[in-house]
Amino acid sequence: MDDPSGRAAIGRAEVLRIARLARLRLGDEEVELFTRQLNDILAHAQEIADAEPDASADEEPARGGAASLRLRDPGAEPDPLLAGPEAFAPAFPDGLFAVPRLEAMDEDRSP
Amino acid sequence: MSGPARFDPRPIGDLAQAVRTGEESARALAETALARMGPADEALNIFLASDPDATLAAADALDAGPGAAGPLAGVPIALKDNLATADLPTTCGSRILENFVSPYEATVVRRLRAAGAVIVGKTNMDEFAMGSSTENSAYGPARNPHDPARVPGGSSGGSAAAVAAGVVPAALGSETGGSVRQPASLSGVVGVKPTYGRVSRYGLVAFASSLDQVGTLANTVADAAAVLEVIAGVDPLDSTSADVPVGDLVGAARAGAEEGLRGVVIGVPRECFGEGLEDGVRARCEGALEAMAAAGAELRDVSLPHTALAVPTYYVIAPAEASSNLARYDGVRYGPRWDPETGLLGMYEETRARGFGAEVKRRIMLGTYVLSAGYYDRYYGRAQQARMRIASDFRAAFGAGVDAIFTPTSPTTAFGLGERTGDPYRMYLADVFTATANLAGIPGISVPIGFADRLPVGGQILADHFAEATMFRVAAGLERALGGGS
Predict the structure, then answer these.
(1) Hey, which of B24, B430, B451, B455 would disulfide with B413, CB 3.0 to 4.6 Å?
(2) What rounded mean pLDDT belongs to chain B?
(3) Strand order in the sheet with B76-80
């Protein structure tokens, strides 16, 4: 939501929405704390939003930006694991990497 | 200069040479490191994992081998706990990776071992490298060897403290916004952030992938160069590593120490010497500039006009990338799981709620927000533009004939434990002089330049992309001009 000055101001509902997107469960105290702190931090981030656009800055991207990334050489061999998957799998029946059953998934599948 | 004793007064190259010739044993060096680790760790909480038997076995294997070859033969080294090791846990200072052991090793770790280095332990750090004080570790804060009531800096605070306390002669850390240089400054050691792409990140747990880079910490510029020379270079397992020759970095440091700085042009950005700089830090920086001039350097005023945007830009881009990178920690693939049996989403949320600490949650929230619909252009898009401007500032300075740029590393000396934990943005300002190099992708090094109120002060040398040799030459010249080095 925006405040009357046109700047972003985050309220409790927005913090809870973001927490859901981020898959974080927050306690009441955390919601209160993060509401205050995120507003403080974003007030400083507004400095970059307020800065005048500079066309010359777009001429060449900084190294390290997404534009400079390249794909891994398709000929590169994968790094061999120090031990086979059976060494660190919770279980390895019939050559399959098995993880513990998740109670929650059973509930998700129930009608 | 005063402070805790070094691991050994000899340069790392001489230590390795002594091991190679049999004059010194790798076991004796490992035993020294292990003997110091216990008391230092008890006082400063700087190690998260170690296996003394494995360390001694590795040293014995070197001693028994057909000539302990390698430029780091027998040299004890500590690793930040976000570098994957197959024989020790890699927790990133987080509960969510408690007891996690990687099935493979980071390229930098393999290169260290291949060069004869002996790994002695994994060091404490801010959780997932998010912090400037090492107070955000799930395993308790690390402390500064110069004053245990103060922080060692962060996020590689454990690695910096391990070198400063004399447990090891060198350590690896990682940088995203200054996490090697800033703790080096606060702990009184040398810290290097290489050019983006100079060192493989394969096996470095990702925080913000367009910024992350592995760095070195040591007592001297030449020692930091010696370790970087071993870990640097293209890696087919990391597509972001660059195929650019590494060069003779130790030789460059030697040249700077022996030949001085005649013919070198040092840029001095006025934006880095304004408000917010502690008086003691300012005084030491002025002394460093005078020393470089006396060693033959030409000092030239330069402008980095967008320096003030570095912290807000960094604290939009880095959390945005972190919110994506840390989405993988959901209780399914790594570490512990907390399942309240309220559905799959409930399991994710509960695991992340209990597994992550407050700073990590704060940055995930911030990153998720700035990437969300309606706010992306306002924050993330503008931050990317600001990043380009910061990079343009450096391009202009180096394009105008400046060989290197000098700034303070940190605006303050080491602050007290708990002093800034209640005010996240105040903590973030610790990165004000370091984050620009990460955003621009250029290399930087922090060099001890003296003390203020008995606390170490670091000065920073920045150089152009892949100009590490120039950076080490200038840094060693500064170090020697101030009476340091070896």
Answers:
(1) B455
(2) 95
(3) B47-49, B118-123, B76-80, B170-175, B213-218, B190-193, B444-452, B455-462, B404-408, B265-269, B298-302
